[in-house]
Structures are given as structure tokens and as C-alpha cells.
Amino acid sequence: METLYRKYRPKNFSEVEGQTHIVKTLKNTITAGRIGHAYLFTGPRGTGKTTIARIFSLALNCLKPKNGDPCGKCTSCLKILKGSSLSIIEIDAASHTGVDNIRQLREEAILPPLDGARYKVYIIDEVHMLSKGAFNALLKILEEPPKHIIFILATTEIQKVPETIISRCQRYDFGRLPLGNIIDKLSRIAKEEKVKLDPEVLEMVAVASAGGMRDAESLLSQLFSANDKDISAKEAEEILGFSHRHTVRAFIDALVENNILQALRYIEEASENGYNLDHFVETLLYQLRRMLFLRVSPDMQNDLKNEMTKEELTKVLEQIKPLSLSWIVRAIDTFLAARISMRSSFLPQIPLETAVVKILDTASTTTPPPTPPANNTQPKTQPTSAPQKENVPTTKLAQEVKVDTPKISNAEDTPSPSSPSEEDLPEPSRSPQRASFSLEEVFTIWQQCLDQTKEKNALLGTFLRNSSVTKTEGNSVFITTSSEFYKSALEKQENRLTIETILGILLNTRVSIHISIGVPEAEKPDPLIQNVIEAFRNAIG
């Protein structure tokens, strides 16, 4: 039985779905008679590069073209359609990669076309697979081609084609086909094959094809192999192996609802049902990416219309309502790291399960109360003049800098992370009163400061990680960074406030930071290690 993508392959430009700009340009080329000697078609697989190359070569040699389309009835067209023409030569570069293959092509290209054809057309598919020597050999004939020779090069990886080749060709970039075009053709094929399909099935297949018509037709052929003349959406999911998508959606629902237990159960269910967990996480990340785009702006619906069905789009818009942008970014980062860990884990679900706990366990995002430095010898006196109500509990301040969970976020959250207000600043503790702190104390809590800053604002955490503490004076911390860009970023009011708040919590006092430009020093070694090294030096000499 002939495969669907071959049986229903377009035979003229009017039958081509999508790629309107390319079809129009090539038809005008035929009509005006302005024929180039080399064309380069590039784009994703299954988007019509080889098909349009064949139609174009047919039109070039057609004796009676109509508005740029081949007639399909003249002797030249009939020979080409039957595959008996010697003037249309297709070469698979993946299996003809060597320089000798291209040298042979050059020797044969000199000969004029046979069968009364106007042009000898070489269609070289997957041209990026040619070796360096083969490209050099091809370049020679592209520079000085005989008048009867036309080259059509096709590739899915344009970055691997040398610039010297690209510059000598007319380049056409093929895009992924719109969802509507794929659905229209699949519907026509189903009608021709007398198979009834739910509209949801057609949409499901079109989305799964990722904009490739050949992939869509291959999936449709897989459905037809069930010998069922009436295929429902549920049957299609089972035949095509798309059932895990429902599990992924339910899994995301559990994350949104902050239901750790249910999320873990879905992972166990996916594992027990034999789903490939790597594929499960891949599908999850694709979905989180769409949620990220739609959370940034609902206007991006048009950009995702080729990736999602209407039902999926409605579902995602509902899911992102209680989520903040920072939560979605954190979820993506966590699951990306889990996917890498899964590949080396003896039990693949463990990294995935721990990722769920990291995202949803609110306790893991709460800053623990700071422990006063061991070398703090300040007397712990309580001034009688200070009202008791002015004491600010450390645990409350710690909660001020934790990352919001989806349960307390709302749809009006802005994309930028929230910054602490003036009220969030830690008031100087009335008991114990600290007038200063040492550089060693800052080094002791610096890593905690970096971690908490990253949780609050990932970008600010990166800026701070590329800086270092150089000295302290009283309640001031002096920070050195390497560029004016970092300095201006750290000195922004909201960023400065965030850092001073976190340092104030960890050092149990009000803190002021001062930023300067210089070469950041390496982190100072632990004082205990310094003492050991000094003692060792004294012992040996």
C-alpha cells in the first residue's frame, strides 16, 4: 500500500499548502523567464522543500506552462511524472558525501539535457551532509555553470552549508506550516480515504506534527492502519501514544494547587504505566514554556496557535491565573536540572520527585532564623526606654524574603519580582544592641545572602555572585564589583534595599552597603583554616 504522503504529494504549485511567498516567487520566475542557475531551499523537515523542488523542475521543462504551473500533459511533464526522464536527477547527499561523487556529477553535467528537455536539473537533498572536499568541488561548477544546468539544493541545517555556496544561490527559507493548512489537507485525505475523524483528532495530529506536513500524513497513516472507519479522539490518543499528555496536564494541575502528594502520585502512575519519564519531562517542559509565554503576555496566543489545540490553550490560560512569572521560571529551572539528573540516576523518578518537593514545599523557601555570630561579645542589655512592641521577630523578617508560592500569587502579579518596601527593613534590635560587625562575620553568612538573594531575584543574585565583600566599617559593608553595569544594577534602590534587608536579617542589625568598581577579590578563607595554616608554618620553621 502506498504511503499517504507519497499518494497525496502535490503535483503542481496550486496544490501546495502554505509557503505562499515561495510558490508565488517561483511561479513568477517561470512566467518572466528569469531563471537562476542555483537555488537553495532551507527549513524544517516535512515543510515541502523536495516537493516544491520537483514541481519547479517540472515547470522549468514544461512545454506549455500555465501561469507558472506545469501543464502535466505534455510529453516532458509525463516523462518526469513517470520518473523516466533523464534530465531530472535527484541526489541524496547523505549517501553521496565524497568529492568523487561531485566530480562525477561535474563530468555528467557538461552533457546537454536529453529527451528534448530545456534544462538538466540536479536536486541535491540534505546538501549539508557533503564533505568539505565535495563542497569545494561543487563550488567550481556553481561559479561557472553551463547554461543548461540548474541546481536546487535542499537542507534542514543551513548553518552547515559554507557561505561560499550560499552566496552563489537564490535562498528560500521554508517555515513551519500553519495549523489550519495541515488540518485542511488531513481532512481532504480522510474524506478521500472514506475515514471519519473527529475534528479534535485532526487538530491533535496537526499539533503533534510540529508544522511538518509529512509528519502529519505519517501520523494519519498510522491511524488508518487500525482499519477503523470512525476514529474517536480517545482511540487516536491510544494509537498514537498521546495518552501521557493527559497525565502531564493533571500533573501541572497538582503543581498549581500546591498538592505535593497528588503530584507524586502522577509521577508514580506514569512510571507504572510504562511511560518514558524523560519524554514525560520533555512534554512537561514544553507545557511550562507555553505557560511562561502566556504569563508574560496573553497576546502571545497567536505565536502558540500552531503548537496547541484550542482546548489546550483554554486549559493553560486557566492554569496560569494563580501563578506568578517567577514561580513558572523556578519550575522550569528545577525540572531542567531534574531531567539532567534522571539520566544518571538508577531510579529515574527520584530526581523528578525531589524537584516537585523543591517547588512546592514552602518550608524549603523560608529563611531560618539567623544564629548570632559566635564571637559576638556585646553585652545583652535591654534599655528601659524601648517599648516592647518595637521588637521585630526575626522569623517574621525571614518570611518577608521568601519566594511566593502559587497559592498566594494572583493573576495581577507583574513579571518583575517584588522588592521590599521601607517597612521591610530590619529595625535595629533593641536587645542586643550591635554597633558593628566584623568582616569574618560577613564572610560566614555571605553564601546564605547569595542564596536568599537568588531566590528573591535571580538576576540580582547573579550580579551579587560576581561581586565580593572587601571590608566592613561599623554597620557598613563595602562590596566591589567588576563593571559599571554591575555597579549601577546593584545601586538601584529596589536592589540595594533587597540586599540590605537580607544582610540585616542574617547579621541581626541594620546594614548599609557601599558599591565600588574594582577587581573582585576571591572569597576570604575560613578563619579556622587560616589559623591551622599559620600554626603549621610556625611548627615547621
Question: Secondary-structure map with pairings?
Answer:
Blueprint: H1 4-7, H2 20-32, E1 38-42, H3 49-61, H4 75-82, E2 88-92, H5 99-109, E3 120-125, H6 132-143, E4 149-155, H7 163-166, E5 170-173, H8 179-192, E6 196-197, H9 199-208, H10 213-224, E7 230-231, H11 233-240, H12 244-256, H13 260-272, H14 277-296, H15 310-319, H16 325-342, H17 349-360, H18 394-400, H19 439-456, H20 458-465, E8 467-473, E9 476-481, H21 484-490, H22 493-507, E10 512-517, H23 527-540
Parallel strand pairs: 1-4, 1-5, 2-3, 3-4, 6-7, 9-10
Antiparallel strand pairs: 8-9
Helix pairs in contact: 2-3, 5-6, 8-9, 12-13, 12-14, 13-17, 14-16, 16-17, 19-20, 19-22
List its salient traits.
541 residues, alpha/beta, 5-stranded parallel beta sheet, 3-stranded mixed beta sheet, 49% helix, 23 helices
Would you kindly provide a written description of the structure presented here, covering whatever features stand out?
This protein has 541 residues and is an alpha/beta fold. Helices cover 49% and strands 9% of the residues. It is built from 23 helices and ten strands. The protein has helices spanning 4-7, 20-32, 49-61, 75-82, 99-109, 132-143, 163-166, 179-192, 199-208, 213-224, 233-240, 244-256, 260-272, 277-296, 310-319, 325-342, 349-360, 394-400, 439-456, 458-465, 484-490, 493-507, 527-540, and strands at residues 38-42, 88-92, 120-125, 149-155, 170-173, 196-197, 230-231, 467-473, 476-481, 512-517. Strands 2-3-4-1-5 form a five-stranded parallel beta sheet, covered by helices on one side. Helix 2 packs parallel to helix 3 and helix 19 (439-456) runs antiparallel to helix 20. The longest helix has 20 residues, at 277-296. The protein is extended and about 100 Å long. The model is unreliable at 363-433 (pLDDT under 50).
